[in-house]
Amino acid sequence: MTRRSPLTTDTPAAYSPERRTAVVFSGTGTAGAYHAGVLRALHEAGVKIDLVAGCGMGVVAALFAAIDGSARLWDPQGLWRQPAAAKLYRWTWLLRVAGWTAAALLAVLAVPLLLLALGLLVYPIDFLLRIVALDSQAALASSYARLVGTAFSTAYLPTWLPAAIAFLVGVFCLVAIMATAVASWRTRRHVRGPVWWRTVAAPLDHRSAVAWVRAGLWGLMGGAVASARPPAATELGRRYAEILTESLGQPGFRELVLTAYDLDASRDVVFALLSDVTRRSFFRRPAAVGRTRLAEAIDLADAGRTHLADAIAGALSLPVACRPHHLTHAPESVWRGETHRLCHRPSALVRLLDEVAEAGVEQVLLVTAVPEPGGPHTLSASLSEPRRRAGDALGRLEAGIVADAVKAALGRFERVFEIRPAHNPLGPLDFEGCHDEHSDRRVTREELIDRGYEDAYSQFVEPIVGASGERLTYATSDQTYPQR
Known about the structure:
Distance between the termini: 20 Å
Order of helices and strands: EHEHHEHHHHEHHEEHEHEEHEHEEEHEE
Structural class: alpha/beta
Mean pLDDT: 85
Number of helices: 14
Low-confidence stretches: 1-13, 471-484
Strand content: 5-15%
Largest sheet: 9 strands, mixed
């Protein structure tokens, strides 16, 4: 059944490619795979897009779509089909070392008990061998007794067991000291409290996700030298901004708006790269009382182009679960060279839509991977694993945020269209897939890409774009075909 946004109608005038159009991506973690599928459908249908915007994992889709590289998200070797995508947001390496150390300690302590438990198998087997008159081969029990006596003798057990435990504890302490030193070195500002809390401040590591995105962008921009190591983060951001600035107005290139949250300034930071027609009014927009526009808006087409990497890292840093990203402002900026902490704010979708409206957008296509809230008898079992429980909470929070964002957009745009799944068992942190209780089978990221593709066609391309009466075209590598 085709589901439409409450702001749409069945009339052909509901959608028009003549209006300035934006696609806004919202979500965390695996939502990016759904975004990739939606982008594929919009690309094939030839939907005109003037501006792309994103918060959280939505920045990935926006970044690639802005420079005509969205195919790098869904193709067979695309970003979301790579094996590396299954290892995003892993536990921090210190927690992983602590887990393996604890497992090794338990194994060492269990060796004596397992040796004794082996007798539950040895003696029955020895008894059966004696029954079938294999006395000559039934020395199993006596051999086992000698083994136990030797293992528990004063020459062995009191020596190797404490030594093994001391070795494992020593290794863990050494790793913890190294982790504390690295954390202290990375901290660019004074931290109050015991130094060891810097090491365990956040359980999840988002740096692998940041490196994954940067490598994908470099593969898209680097061309023949894409196999080389990506440049430094600031240099990569500068090259991206230069490419997009020089190519705006060309087919496949779109204006860009991203958001992250400044924990120290307690306000959203807006990163934007816009055309000259929109740029002046956007960055000179009067701010709310008590806020300065220059303190919260960074022009990626000007001096702020080196901060694109900060926008990526800040948007991918989950609140509380990950360490905030540190952004160092320029000395000539409003913040006078201060270093601020950035992270993702799930409810920033409302602010993102507000900024998109200020960029002159008339109709918005909102893409989210969370389904609409269910009614009675849709409860599910609680999750016990901490990582999945955190992801489930983030997904459920976003469902309410999307509803608030759509309501807030009522008076801001002529039309708001939604693309979202009817059912999505993958939580934001289920990068390796998960078991779907409703269908009793395993669901993967690849399937989420396909679901986004199908939903985009069934919810927007066919009922909305098709009903508008406009005849669109989409380009392939060698020729152009009319929309069917």
